[in-house]
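Q: For a teaching session next week I want to show students how multiple molecules come together into a single three-dimensional assembly. I've collected the sequence lines for a complex. Could you give me the predicted structure tokens for the whole thing so I can convert them for display?
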Amino acid sequence: MSVKNISITPGWEKYMTKEYQDLVERGPYGKQKKVSEMGSFKEVLEEHPMCAGCAMTLFIRLTMVGLPNPEHTVLIGTAGCGRLALTQTSIPFIYGNYGDTNAVASGLKRGLEVRFKDQAKDVVVMAGDGGLADIGFSAVMHSWFRKERFTTIMLDNEVYGNTGGQESGMTERGALLKMAPKGKMFEKMDMMGLAQTAGVAYIARLTPTNPTRVASVVRKAVMIAREVGPTFIQAYTSCNIEYAIPTPKVLDDAREIEAKRYGFTEIISDEAKAYLDSIDTSKKVKK
Amino acid sequence: MYLVAHIDQAICSETACRLCTQYCPEANTILYDNAAKTAFVAVDRCKGCEICVGICDDLAKHHAIKMVMITDLENQFEMSKEGFRPDHWNGKHS
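A: Of course. Below is the structure for the complete assembly, covering every listed component.
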């Protein structure tokens, strides 16, 4: 998809919905929007059916602002909460089956590279902790070992929120959930460590407490995935339903978890760092 | 009836923090009127989570956002009726 593809054929404007017209005329296409401009441009994310006050929604909204080229991006997701919002973006979305998101992304990215030689196309996998660390685990690891060039974003709510509160591999040890009434008996999986072992070029772990940081991490991850290799973002996006967090306290909880155990960590390979520096200097030269 | 966020524009226009527009989980719900230099709420999109109230009170310390009954609002902005037209805002909305 490109901006040309979404523009309305002259004479047919009145048949298109208001939302669509707004998106074509006042959307973020072709110009990199900043987080500080939010509220004064039409976002690629539309109204969606996710719960009120969901931190995952906030993270997805910020991710959409962070994408360097939304018109040249393809999203891949799977069953879980995240897809409820991802399907409401004006970005092509592929609903992978549970377990194969990163396998689909690998093939798609390779195909796009063959088909569009002159235009970089970004592939972004966005799925939950269950979809990536449990059910999709082998596809995730293998795509990293094969150094497939796309971004994997884990929406880590530490629970199967969509199916009634089962524990996932990413749930904290001891967490009490509806379907884990004795508390989880095993440790939270160390996905960052696994990503490092697999040689992922850029790894970041963060919470949505700082909108500008979220957007810049996403931008870096997508840019590095274009040229260098696989990238991985693990984002704490609490489930306020299953963890019974009152919605006004959702960000307080995110701040608390960030301070206590999640933090903000970035691990970047030398090659990726050199690439980031090179695109920064080329920008300066243009000015 | 239900509660929606309401921004006191007299307080908001004194500042330029724009934090609520960045922390709202809903897309294009807290909008920013560049002409009137104030944020305002598209009430038909507000799910009433109150995150913006916490942000305005604790982080920005401006205390400009309150939850109000939707029936008590006059001249509210509805995105589904007016669409996203920043040129037409000019501080017309409550």
